[in-house]
Design goal:
Elements lengths: L4 H22 L26 E9 L7 E12 L2 E15 L7 E14 L9 E9 L4 E8 L2 E5 L3 E10 L6 E11 L4 E12 L3 E2 L6 E2 L3 E8 L8 E8 L19 E9 L1
């Protein structure tokens, strides 16, 4: 069943309001920001402390029409308290989807990016990322400017909401998306993270039956385990998503024909 964009946004709003009420009812007053670099397909404003780094990897085995395997790696380093550098890459096999009535759809490939991340002094609620995305895919083999503007809003000790405009300026098909997400602390060691990104401009996939370009939402949800919640030195995620990877472009690209993947991710900080 195909869920339209309006239904997804309404679902996100409904879940957010329900969880916000539950979180505020359990712990009135105060705020607590989770030290997390990303949700599933969305970045957050977090920058590691000066001189420290965080490392992330994730695996996404797709079945169905996508029928591919993607892996992502990421390294974030903080030069200053409010300035960091991000390198990340998503790599996958290249395959052909053959269907009757049109030429095959060649999909998959790799994407690399370098981003500078800046957060204004005296605030942790907003950051700006800008840099270059290097695409090596059947659809694109070029270098593009890319950027994100992650924002967060804590509600009580258990719930943090996120809003993330993001874009990849592909020639003749610039992708512009608006993502919303949440981080819900269930216990000191267990959290629920989720996000959905709607495409405001550009086409981020192809129709698996006609071959025509079209746009579709990208979503992800996961359970996050933090063995030591005092320092967040290691976190592990297990969930499901239809996003191909962690780079800006692949995080706005869904699996073909509504395909989804199991999601396993881990983050280390040192």
């Amino acid at each position: 069943m195909k869920i339209c964009r309006a239904h997804l946004l309404l679902m996100l709003a409904g879940v957010t309001l329900t969880l916000a009420k539950a979180a505020l009812a359990q712990e009135p007053g105060g705020t607590a920001r989770p030290e997390t670099d990303r949700l599933v397909n969305l970045d957050t404003p977090y920058i590691p402390p000066k001189g420290l780094a965080s490392y992330h990897f994730d695996l996404r085995p797709f079945g169905s029409l996508e029928d591919n395997f993607y892996g992502s790696i990421e390294a974030d380093y903080a030069f200053r308290q409010n300035l960091g550098l991000i390198f990340r890459a998503t790599m996958g096999g290249t395959k052909n989807l053959v269907n009757t009535g049109f030429a095959s759809i060649r999909h998959g490939g790799n994407e690399f990016e370098f981003l500078a991340k800046f957060r204004p002094m005296h605030t942790t609620n907003i950051a700006a990322e800008i840099g270059l995305t290097i695409a090596d895919t059947p659809a694109q083999k070029d270098v593009f400017f890319s950027g994100q503007l992650p924002m967060e809003h804590p509600l009580g000790h258990r719930l943090t909401l996120y809003l993330v405009p993001k874009a990849v300026l592909i020639k003749d098909n610039a992708l512009v998306g608006l993502g919303g997400g949440l981080h819900v602390r269930v216990t000191n060691q267990i959290a629920l993270v989720g996000d959905v990104t709607g495409i405001l401009a550009g086409d981020n996939t192809r129709n698996a039956f006609t071959g025509n370009r079209e746009s579709a939402e990208v979503w992800g949800v996961a359970i996050r385990y933090t063995p030591n919640p005092l320092n967040y030195s290691f976190t592990m995620d297990l969930g499901v998503t239809n996003g191909l990877g962690s780079t800006t472009g692949f995080s706005m690209t869904p699996g073909l024909g509504g395909s989804s993947a199991f999601y396993f991710g881990a983050t280390f900080r040192r």
